[in-house]
């Protein structure tokens, strides 16, 4: 069965409906590419065809390229050929001498938008679901189907660079006002009627870029405005990416160089840059982790097999503070009834008011209707009454980080719950097995560690206690997916996986400060390493006093268990700063002086240089970067070795979605693959000798190096 259904009307116009069998979305796989080629040949050779409407039989117009096909490209030559081959059909489509209209509904992304831009006219169904964009950069690629050439010729270079550089997806109204599409339709029927009318009125259309006097909107590469853009765009891009994402540079080069030559040469230039991207380690890492490993997780790789899929209709949340309020918002958004409980009605109401605030903004921006807002708010019941929890299938506690308080609410809630209901803790530091001691049924006790702010952070770290049953884990996993978050599953441990590894990044920054490394060098190194925030600023955000509190608690717990506590060399820095009242952003004073009104710039506190005098000899910047990355990767490998991590995929995906580990390295474990385990081991040993045994390479990395193999890298 062809991927495109053909329906020719009496007027000769063909309605071609793209509908790839057996797939939820249209993608450019071999079948679709073959069907498109056949369609173009028919358009060229069949005189009875007077025009073409390209539409989709799926929920969305088109998802983009087939990632398996991209992944299979092993050399730059193959990348170049594949890109040129696909484009040659699009070029023939727009030069066949007959009108072609794209009738777009839903999402129209990547290669799908490139197909649409090769049509002479684009109409979008304006039903609130349309969304158009070229998101290739997110996988370390550039649009290689003509996107870097057609988009700037439609919307101007500056707008195109911004959209392609950030992978922006635009809504119908912006697509129209920017010139990306030419018309909006109210209904599918209206869209088809408009398409037919346009075809009837334009029997011999020509693409703007094929017209002899074509001008880019806003000017081409020779215009003074673009000269200015060319001067500043690279520095603006590298200020954000620190040169870690070659695809961004290649997109710029393709756009600017393509603006100096004729359209067909420009398409060749684009393919050369596409080829460079497709074989880059950055792209392989991004695709391996954020496509293959993430999809494996979403398909339930870490979920126990054989347990039927469950659904939560009613959720209880204990504690309506920052986390409880956020969890209530995402759950109610996903259609779950929520009981939001706190010690007073005023506190519970305040937690619900968080949802009101977010929804009011969404309504104002047009992302949500007032009716949707009211329906979502109606699903949240703010209360102080434990009896309201009676028919909840799941309760998540998000009360203070205090064992006593958590034990008390666990017992109060469990007294109301059905025997098969699950109780979860959102603790960020307290081991789950210990908290489960307060529970009458520890097999139904689990950790669901959300991140802040909950509505922006996609990850939930599921922590399995010693007695947590497979059924409970499966229920926790299903709930996380039900509310649209990404679950990783880890075994119980102090700090679990994410907090434990994340802490090594921040603490390494603090240790270097103590050694006399210039604080600015440390902060810049964090960003150069690809982390979203530098270590000292991050510690200020999290609060230094919390760091001291966690260290004290750990010391106490380990002493009670008869274990020896060894302080990280960065720990004294936390204590010294806290003693001076410099406890972080919430006090306006930490490693930085924070602006009082929250508006101005934060500045590194000048007193740091008196407290931690600069060493006479400053380390090489690369060494600072390496220390920040190696510390995390080594700890992640230890988590895998100790069985805290259950899979490499959870480790990589968790590190990127949880604390923003440099995505172009593909996550904390893939970083070791990228460096090469043998080199990692050798460099770690040098770092251990110079800076302490925390850098001693984990035994599983040494084993990889010895055997010449890698951690699982994802991929088809
Ligand atoms: P918070 O102080 O903002 O909120 C805690 C809420 O619990 C308050 O509204 C408080 O009134 C309520 N509460 C206290 N005792 C209660 C009781 N006996 N019964 C009912 N409600 C009670 O704290 P938070 O930042 O939302 O953190 C909550 C939990 O989530 C903690 O365990 C914390 O470690 C964890 N956590 C926090 C973050 C974060 O970034 N803040 C991230 C992940 C996990």
TrEMBL record:
Which PANTHER family does the record match to this protein?
A: TRIFUNCTIONAL ENZYME SUBUNIT ALPHA, TRIFUNCTIONAL ENZYME SUBUNIT ALPHA, MITOCHONDRIAL
Keywords for this protein = Fatty acid metabolism, Lipid degradation, Lipid metabolism, Lyase, Multifunctional enzyme, NAD, Oxidoreductase
> Catalyzes what?
a (3S)-3-hydroxyacyl-CoA + NAD(+) = a 3-oxoacyl-CoA + NADH + H(+)
Domain 3-hydroxyacyl-CoA dehydrogenase NAD binding positions: 314-492
Q: What family is it from?
A: In the central section; belongs to the 3-hydroxyacyl-CoA dehydrogenase family.
Name of the protein = 3-hydroxyacyl-CoA dehydrogenase NAD-binding domain-containing protein
Q: Which Gene3D superfamilies match?
A: 1.10.1040.50, 2-enoyl-CoA Hydratase, Chain A, domain 1, NAD(P)-binding Rossmann-like Domain
Question: Which InterPro entries does its entry note?
Answer: 3-OHacyl-CoA_DH_NAD-bd, 3HC_DH_C, 6-PGluconate_DH-like_C_sf, ClpP/crotonase-like_dom_sf, Enoyl-CoA_hydra/iso, FA_oxidation_alpha_subunit, NAD(P)-bd_dom_sf
Q: In which pathway does it act?
A: Lipid metabolism; fatty acid beta-oxidation
Report the residue ranges that make up the 3-hydroxyacyl-CoA dehydrogenase C-terminal domain in this protein.
495-594
């Amino acid at each position: 069965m062809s991927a495109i259904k053909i329906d020719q009307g009496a007027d000769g116009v063909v309605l071609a409906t793209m509908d790839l069998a057996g797939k939820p979305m249209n993608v450019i796989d071999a079948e679709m590419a073959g069907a498109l080629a056949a369609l173009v040949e028919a358009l060229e050779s069949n005189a009875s065809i007077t025009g073409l409407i390209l539409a989709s039989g799926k929920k969305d117009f088109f998802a983009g390229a087939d990632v398996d096909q991209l992944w299979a490209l092993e050399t730059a030559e193959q990348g170049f050929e594949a890109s040129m081959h696909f484009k040659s059909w699009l070029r023939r489509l727009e030069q066949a001498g007959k009108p072609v209209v794209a009738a777009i509904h839903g999402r129209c992304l990547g290669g799908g938008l490139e197909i649409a831009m090769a049509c002479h006219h684009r109409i979008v169904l304006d039903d609130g679901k349309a969304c158009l964009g070229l998101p290739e950069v997110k996988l370390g690629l550039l649009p290689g189907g003509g996107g870097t050439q057609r988009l700037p010729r439609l919307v101007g270079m500056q707008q195109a660079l911004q959209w392609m550089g950030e992978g922006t997806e635009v809504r119908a109204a912006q697509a129209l006002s920017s010139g990306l599409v030419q018309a909006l339709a109210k209904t599918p029927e209206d869209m088809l009627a408009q398409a037919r009318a346009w075809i009837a009125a334009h029997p011999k259309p020509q693409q703007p870029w094929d017209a002899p006097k074509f001008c880019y909107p806003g000017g081409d590469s020779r215009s003074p405005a673009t000269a200015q853009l060319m001067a500043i765009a690279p520095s603006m891009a590298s200020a954000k990416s620190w040169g870690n994402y070659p695809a961004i540079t290649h997109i710029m080069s393709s756009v600017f160089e393509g603006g100096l030559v004729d359209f067909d040469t420009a398409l060749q230039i684009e393919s050369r840059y596409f080829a460079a991207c497709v074989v880059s380690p950055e792209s392989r890492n991004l695709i391996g982790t954020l496509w293959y490993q993430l999809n494996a997780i979403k398909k339930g790789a870490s979920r126990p097999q054989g347990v039927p899929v469950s659904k939560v209709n009613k959720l209880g949340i204990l504690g309506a503070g920052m986390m409880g309020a956020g969890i209530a918002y995402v759950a109610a958004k996903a259609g779950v009834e929520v009981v939001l409980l706190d010690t007073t009605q005023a506190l519970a109401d305040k937690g619900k008011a968080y949802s009101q605030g977010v929804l009011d903004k969404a309504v104002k921006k047009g992302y949500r209707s007032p009716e949707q807002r009211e329906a979502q708010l109606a699903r949240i019941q703010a209360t102080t009454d434990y009896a309201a929890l009676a028919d909840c299938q799941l309760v998540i506690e998000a009360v203070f980080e205090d064992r006593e308080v958590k034990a008390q609410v666990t017992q109060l809630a469990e007294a109301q719950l059905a025997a098969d209901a699950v109780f979860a803790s959102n603790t960020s530091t307290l081991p789950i097995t210990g908290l489960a001691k307060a529970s009458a049924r520890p097999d139904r006790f689990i950790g669901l560690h959300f991140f802040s702010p909950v509505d922006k952070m996609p990850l939930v770290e599921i922590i399995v206690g010693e007695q947590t049953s497979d059924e409970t884990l499966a229920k926790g996993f299903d709930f996380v997916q039900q509310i649209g978050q990404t679950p990783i599953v880890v075994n119980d441990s102090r700090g679990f996986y994410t907090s434990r590894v994340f802490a090594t990044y921040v603490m390494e920054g603090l240790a270097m400060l103590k050694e006399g490394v210039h604080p600015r060098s440390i902060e810049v190194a964090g960003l150069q390493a690809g982390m979203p925030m530098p270590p000292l600023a991050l510690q200020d955000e999290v609060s230094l006093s919390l760091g001291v509190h966690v260290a004290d608690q750990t010391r106490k717990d380990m002493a009670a268990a008869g274990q020896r506590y060894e302080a990280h060399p960065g720990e004294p820095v936390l204590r010294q700063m806290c003693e001076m009242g410099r406890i972080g952003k919430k006090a306006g004073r930490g490693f930085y002086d924070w602006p009082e009104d929250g508006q101005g710039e934060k500045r590194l506190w000048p007193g740091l240089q008196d407290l931690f005098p600069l060493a006479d000899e400053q380390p090489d910047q690369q060494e600072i970067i390496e220390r920040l990355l190696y510390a995390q990767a080594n700890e992640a490998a230890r988590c895998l070795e100790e069985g805290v991590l259950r899979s490499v995929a959870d480790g990589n995906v968790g590190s990127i979605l949880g604390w923003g580990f440099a995505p172009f390295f593909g996550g904390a474990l893939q970083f070791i693959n990228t460096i090469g385990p043998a080199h990692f081991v050798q460099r770690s040993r040098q770092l251990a000798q110079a800076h302490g045994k925390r850098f001693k390479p984990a035994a599983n990395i040494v084993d990889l190096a010895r055997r010449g193999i890698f951690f699982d890298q994802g991929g088809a």
